[in-house]
Model the fold of this input.
Amino acid sequence: VRRPGAEALHPLQPHQLAFEACFNASPIRILFCDRDMVVRDVNAAFLETEGFTRGEVVGKTLAELIGPAVFERDRPQIEAALAGEAQSVVSWGLRRATRGRLLRIRHEPVRDEAGAVIGFLSMLEDTTDLHQLRQRVSMQDEVINQTSDALAVVDADYRYLWANPSYARLWNRL
Done:
């Protein structure tokens, strides 16, 4: 990822500029770590959500940054990413900024031009709201399906779009 003054030494190609723009604008928290698990870059979403400055993150080992308990939990997925296999897990956050939040964590290998893994991206997406919405919808579906009231949804042309089991039983359509 580009550093101040690097343009004169190695101008970035359009696809690199596009990647950098996506990296920096993404609402998903992203860290780039090298093979030694040292953080080499971080996006704004990570800094804002975690409450860090760039200087507090870049140059630290991942274990220093996220703490030993979280690091040990994530280590197998990180090592698999360093071996070239993308990993994705859904897990409850353990750190101050993520405690009580359901996170989709993806570790994606980063390769050089020759295909060798030079590091990995760790991407953290907070899926708590989606999880809670799914739980509410599931509960509502269960209530509607279990009620003895006959319920149906019909469109403007009087076509059935949906009916619950009680409605189907009422009309002998179960």
About this structure: The mean pLDDT is 82. The chain has eight helices and seven strands. Strands lie at 29-34, 39-42, 87-92, 102-111, 117-126, 152-154, 160-163.
